[in-house]
Amino acid sequence: MRIGIISDTHIPLNAKELPPQLAEVFAGVELILHAGDVYLSSVLDELGELAPVLAAYGDGESRLHIKMGADPRMKKSHTISVEGVCIGLVHHLRFPGASLEKVFGGPVDIAVCGHTHEASIETHQGVIIVNPGSATLPLHQVNRSGTVALLDITRGKAEARIVQLD
After folding, report:
1. How many domains does the chain have?
2. What is the DSSP string of 131-164?
3. What is the CATH number of the domain that holds 123?
4. What is the pTM of this model?
């Protein structure tokens, strides 16, 4: 299964729309995870035309008093299992010292987060941490190509990679 991962779209505050390359990069994904700071449900609707979407509330939604309504795709965090791999989705994951079991209510194999706008894939205590950066505001800078991530899970093995949107 291929999963598209995106975060920190900040639409319409810092960008007017999702990057047009996203449809090509996410072509064929079976699920999209949005790691927060969505701001508009219409962003999830647009992503939902590509694949089903789950999203985490970001700090921006509460800080800016953005009301996204009762969108069933949005939660503070999600935990899902894909081919025996447990994936946790949240906006802000504080490292070092974050108790992943406390954040996700149990152990996870992969933690997907955003918040920093800096793309990274690292391993912490055996857990793969995937931060796709920001598709619209990488490193908090405008006029710069954003990033997303792709996560492939095959027979219980996971492999993640960062994709630069050119």
Report:
1. 1
2. E---SSSGGG-SSS--EEEEEEEETTEEEEEEEE
3. 3.60.21.10
4. 0.94
